Amino acid sequence: MADTVAMVVDIQEGIDSQTRDFLQKKRDAIQMMSKIPPDCAEILSARYFDRKTFEEIGKMMFITKRYAVRKHKEALAEFQKVLDFKETGE
């Protein structure tokens, strides 16, 4: 029984550690998104944090689904620029 309790505690500690790591990465992503144009940040936030489809994003932003997909690609490119700058420091 003690071994089972110890195993459960170890698993819980692992989950807690993964949760902290995830939340830190989410905070980092939000901070980096503050450095891209607001419409780009809005699309990325809706897509990845709110789990919205491109159709839902289009409706939310009063654009077509097709244009939402195009803007998403642009938003990813903007985010990548910030990420590259962060990694290189240039």
Overview of the structural elements:
With 90 residues, this protein is mainly alpha-helical. It has a single domain (2-88), classed as Arc Repressor Mutant, subunit A, CATH 1.10.10. The protein has 4 helices and no strands. The protein has helices at residues 2-33, 38-49, 54-61, 65-88.
How much of the sequence lies in strands comes to under 5%
> According to CATH, what is the topology?
Arc Repressor Mutant, subunit A
CATH hierarchy class name: Mainly Alpha
**Alpha plus pi helix count:** 4
H/E series: HHHH
Please state the average pLDDT score.
93
Question: How many distinct domains?
Answer: 1
Shape: elongated
Radius of gyration: 18 Å
Q: Give start-end ranges of low-pLDDT stretches.
A: none
CATH architectural group: Orthogonal Bundle
The strand count comes to 0
Let me know the largest β-sheet. Answer: none
How far the N terminus sits from the C terminus, by CA atoms, comes to: 56 Å
User: Can you give the helix content as a percent range?
Assistant: over 70%
- Structural class by SSE content: mainly alpha
